[in-house]
Amino acid sequence: LFYEDWDDETTKLLFKCDAEIQDLCRHLSELDLSGVRSLKEHYGQVEVAAFSAKIRSIASFKGLKTPGLVTTGGYLPDFSSRYFSADFAFGLKLILQVGNLAQVALPTCQMLMTWYESLPLKHQEVSCARYGLNTRTDLVAFYGQ
User: Fold this and answer.
1) Is residue 121 part of a domain?
2) Does the residue 3 lie in any domain?
3) Which contiguous run of DSSP H or E holds residue 69?
4) Counted domains in the chain
C-alpha cells in the first residue's frame, strides 16, 4: 500500500525536496508564491516520525496501492501510472526548469529526476521554453501579471 506503508526514509527524502522548493519560492521574491506552502505546514507535522504517521493515517489515502504489475517473478512498477506519466514528467520536470531559470539548485529533486529518466520508458517532454520562458525575466514577466 502506497501511503499505509509510508516510512521515515521516504519522509526524509520528501522533506529535502520540500525544503528545496520552499527555497526556490523565496528566491523568486518577485512573484507571490505564498500559496506554495511547505508540506510540513500543510500536514501540521514537522518531525519525521510524526509526519510519516500522519501520512499513514489519512483516511482518503487508505487502500491506495503502489502502482505495480504482477509478473511471474513478483512485481514491476506500472510505468503507465500517473506517478510516472504525470508527477515526474510534468510536476517535477517543471519545478526543475523553474529552478534552472531562477538559478536555484535543487539537488534532491534533480536526483529523483535523474532516477526517473533512467527508467526504461518513453519520457514525455515538457518545456518552459516552448512557452517563451527562457530566462528568469521571462518567467517573472509571464507569472507576475
Assistant:
1) yes
2) no
3) strand 68-71
4) 1
Cell 501511503 found at:
3
Q: Look-up: residue for cell 514491476?
A: 76
* Contact status, residue 17 vs residue 109, Cβ threshold 8 Å: yes
CA separation for the pair 55, 4 (Å, rounded): 7
Q: Which three cell numbers stand for residue 60?
A: 482518503
Letter for the amino acid at 135? Answer: T
Quick: pLDDT tens for 92-134. Answer: 999 999 999 999 999 999 999 999 999 887 777 789 999 999 9
Let me know if residue 136 belongs to a domain. yes
**Residue with grid cell 528568469, as numbered in its chain:** 136
69 has which bridge partners?
A: 76
Amino acid 26 reads R
Question: Global pTM?
Answer: 0.89
Which has the closest alpha carbon to 101: 18, 33, 24, 16?
24
CA distances to 24, 44, 78, 93 from 59, rounded to whole Å, are 31, 16, 24, 29
One-letter identity of residue 69: L
